[in-house]
Amino acid sequence: MTVYNHVALIGLGLIAGSISLALRRNGQPVKITGTARSAQTRQTALDIGLVDAVFDTAAEAVKGADLVILAVPIGAMAGIAADIAPHLKTGATVTDVGSVKSAVIDAVGPHMPKNVHFIPGHPMAGTEKSGPESGFAHLFDNRWCLLTPPKDTDKNALAKLSEFWQGLGAMVEIMDAKHHDLVAVVISHAPHLIAYTMVGVADDMSRVTEQEVVNYSAAGFRDFTRIAASDPTMWRDVFLHNKDATLEVLGRFTEELFALQRAIRTGDGDFLFDYFTRTRDVRRSIIDAGQDTDAVDFGRVAAAETDKK
Amino acid sequence: MTVYNHVALIGLGLIAGSISLALRRNGQPVKITGTARSAQTRQTALDIGLVDAVFDTAAEAVKGADLVILAVPIGAMAGIAADIAPHLKTGATVTDVGSVKSAVIDAVGPHMPKNVHFIPGHPMAGTEKSGPESGFAHLFDNRWCLLTPPKDTDKNALAKLSEFWQGLGAMVEIMDAKHHDLVAVVISHAPHLIAYTMVGVADDMSRVTEQEVVNYSAAGFRDFTRIAASDPTMWRDVFLHNKDATLEVLGRFTEELFALQRAIRTGDGDFLFDYFTRTRDVRRSIIDAGQDTDAVDFGRVAAAETDKK
């Protein structure tokens, strides 16, 4: 069943592209309009069929839309919210896919007219790629989309948005925005910052050549470089807009790292062994929950075989 | 061409198992004997054909072998070296696959008789799995094996060992042991310790439930859990035996993390953006060097498709 007849995508990158492809996969009739900051992105999105029509401005793109999805870096959201506000259809739902929710509520909420439903969201899926051509239809399959509706959100509007995400393949969970922002740091923001840091250190060690780093990366480092290849603008905005939760988790991380560092310095093998054993169990739970594959070789065996074909 | 007629595997885990399978893949006649500490591992290795004969002790397993490969945690190497020393064939080569080289040279070197060649080595490949059944024939294909021969190593013996690793699919590089130990921290040991730490923090945050961590892990965290699922005994020994280089790189890491943390606290978006842009280039080099795939969705698309079949 078509949940919304007309969807407007503001921003046409990995997430918006994947939403479009997942919508098309369902074969339901839905009109998709969109816009992006760069003329080249707009043209590409039109050429590869992500949108039925593309517009130079967000104000034009949202006209008549039943669902408006803000899929731009968090720092750009307030400006766009102000631009589109006068052009939103009565009864439309406005949502977003930003990685931080309190900041989006602060940036977008004040601009929203009373006759539209504003329900922030965050699909917990992505890759290190960006741009309209990086999307794929099954990105959200079996992944979670977290919705953080403000108090007094219309129940029907919330039910419709949940149904929309389920139609894209996702599972939906309702969550408090502040709690979301802490959870997101633990499972996404802190791992990204740490990966960026480690890759920066490797790039910077004058006694280890770049060629050595590159050649021998299969021993663990390459997974960090994959994470650290994510979109710089998006991630800059994430950290600037989720400051408190990020600094809290980094504080915990440093404390923990110092404890392990101390165990290494003092030769406390039991401490290290116990720590490394405990973390194995977390991995098991993630595989059991279907959130990663158990394939050996870091999931690269199957990928490599496919490459050969 | 068969490089060694008889290979003895001391320890029968992921690396030894993969060596055996890669040797068998070549179809050359080679006798493989082996031993492992646990009776169950010995039996499994025999049952799945990793070895032609299995022995209760390393002393028996090395008898008549042209090449002896120590594939046990670093902490176990000195004891094994002492045990096998009187039973080594004249002219045999003894090597290892440990992740640290100076410590192995200190532990094994003094026990080696004058009539054998001792050439430490480290194949830069692996997965988070362990045990005899986790090996696979193409683990070393297109990966690097670093050899750290002591001064005065016999040139022919070194050439033969290089040829052996090339026969398993690897590329060989000769390196100074101390330099190896620093490179290994940057591209392997530090990323592992950091991943263990982050998974430990997530497991420990009382305000974030384990179910939340597991469900939403696709947003970055799951790559950390994969690394942090590696063998605890092996990694305990790595850190205990590569203390100085590990502490040096962790010091650099913390300094860098604090710089990023400060940029977040002060809202320095340009610093963050520039940092995140620089790390993207390292990723590109690794893909160009064939040390990872460029497949989207963290290499999990192909794996997931395979799972469905």
- Fourth-tier CATH superfamily name of the largest domain in chain A: NAD(P)-binding Rossmann-like Domain
Bin the strand percentage of chain A.
Answer: 5-15%
Q: From the 3D coordinates, which CATH architecture of the largest domain in chain A would you assign? A: 3-Layer(aba) Sandwich
Largest beta-sheet details of chain A? 6 strands, parallel
Main-sheet strand order of chain A equals 3-2-1-4-5-6
Distance between the termini of chain A: 38 Å
The coarse overall form of chain A would be: globular
Spell the H/E element sequence of chain A: EHEHEHEHEHEEEHEHHHHHHH
Structural class of chain A: alpha/beta
Q: In a few lines, what is going on in this structure?
A:
2 copies of one chain form a homodimer. With 309 residues, the first copy, chain A, is of the alpha/beta class.
Task: Please outline the helices and strands.
The structure is a homodimer of 309-residue chains.
Chain A: E1 6-10, H1 14-25, E2 31-35, H2 39-47, E3 53-54, H3 58-61, E4 67-70, H4 77-84, E5 93-96, H5 102-108, E6 117-118, E7 121-123, E8 144-147, H6 155-167, E9 171-174, H7 177-204, H8 210-215, H9 221-227, H10 232-241, H11 243-266, H12 269-288, H13 300-308
Parallel strand pairs in A: 1-2, 1-4, 2-3, 4-5, 5-6, 8-9
Antiparallel strand pairs in A: 7-8
Helix pairs in contact in A: 4-5, 7-9, 7-11
